Amino acid sequence: MSNDSIVHAVAGAAGGILAMTATYPLVFISTRAANETKNENKSTYRTVVDILRSEGLLGLYNGLSSSLLGIAVTNGVYYYFYESTKGVIVRSRNGIKALSTFESMLAGLIAGSATTVISNPIWVIQTAQTVSGMDAVVAKASTSSPPKRLGVLATAARLLHTDGPAAFFRGLGPALVLVVNPVLQYTVFEQLKNALVRRRRMARRTGALLTDWDFFLLGAISKLVATGITYPYIVVKSRLQAGHAAAARYHSALHGLRLIIAEEGFGGIYKGVASKLLQSVLTAAILFASQRRFYELTKKVASLFFCQSYPCFFNF
Question: Cα 35 from chain centroid?
């Protein structure tokens, strides 16, 4: 077991929690928008106003707890498998530490597949929490009290009671297809980073080759590319995970895409894309910038703890 991979996993989880906390209202809005059908078509502004009126300001944070758990597990597992796979590839050759495009995609594919299967139940719970207030928005005229928000365990219990254990793996098909999202993201990031490092080495730049601002921008650009390409599948996955009524007719993710286009037009597969792109880009930028700092901090703390409390067998 690679200790460095564990440090990367802890740092990735911490960075993900920070990024998700900062951008969660955008996650909430984009998920709500993705679960609206043609008859419920509303602007982002109207969606926000309806949420605030029916659920209050805290409504924009409904599902935050499960999201923080989900992002911690997702990023932790992803970084662990990605860095472990990267380490195996690098150790298999001499001298060259930078991954090629194919190697970056391979590492991302392995990490993404493992992460998706492990974290899917958490994201099903988060999506269920996020859309739980949609019926309350429709019924607002008959009541003035905000809907009761269920916690993570209560939502999980309700899903288990109503749909059985299979409910926690709703949307796993398109979620596995969406493994291409982090694969694209990390591949674009690695290649842009490698190109920038080579350029600055050729310019014989002194000091750090990459700054926090570089990581922020590279993370933003890579996520913009990945999410822009894969967003239609994000809509289908979100509807399946939420147990959306329309999604019951989807025989597959591809069939779901065809149905949405036929019934709602091409705009249907891009509902909520503006807030999702903004949230994804900001989250990735914050994650890539903060993960580097969390990695350095975690490595120092782990080294001090293990070397002072136990014989220093660990190579952090």
Answer: 17
The predicted-structure confidence for 18-28, as pLDDT tens digits, reads as follows: 988 888 888 88
- pLDDT tens for 177-203 read 888 888 888 888 888 988 888 888 887
For tokens 């949609």, name the residue. Answer: 134
Mean pLDDT of the chain: 80
Longest CA pairwise span in the chain (Å): 70
Query: Residue 305: its pLDDT value, please?
Result: 66
Name the residue with tokens 């996020």.
130
Our CA dihedral for 28, 34, 40, 41, rounded to 10 degrees, sits at 100
Residue 143's φ and ψ, nearest 5 degrees, are: -155, 150
Return d(Cα 155, Cα 295) in angstroms, integer.
33
Give whole-number Cα distances, 192 to 98, 120, 213, 294, in Å.
Answer: 11, 30, 14, 22
Spatial CA neighbour of 12 closest among 302, 315, 299, 288: 288
| Distant-in-sequence contacts of 143-150, Cβ < 8 A, 24+ apart | 146/54, 146/55, 146/56, 146/59, 147/54, 147/55, 149/55, 149/58, 149/59, 149/62
CB atoms within 10 A of CB 12: 28
For residues 99 and 191, what is the distance between their CA atoms, to the nearest angstrom? 8
Encoding tokens for residue 27?
């996650």
Task: Kindly state the tokens that stand for 277.
Answer: 């792109």
Using an 8 Å Cβ cutoff, are 70 and 123 in contact? yes
Which pTM does this prediction carry?
Answer: 0.66
φ and ψ at 132, to 5 degrees?
-65, -25
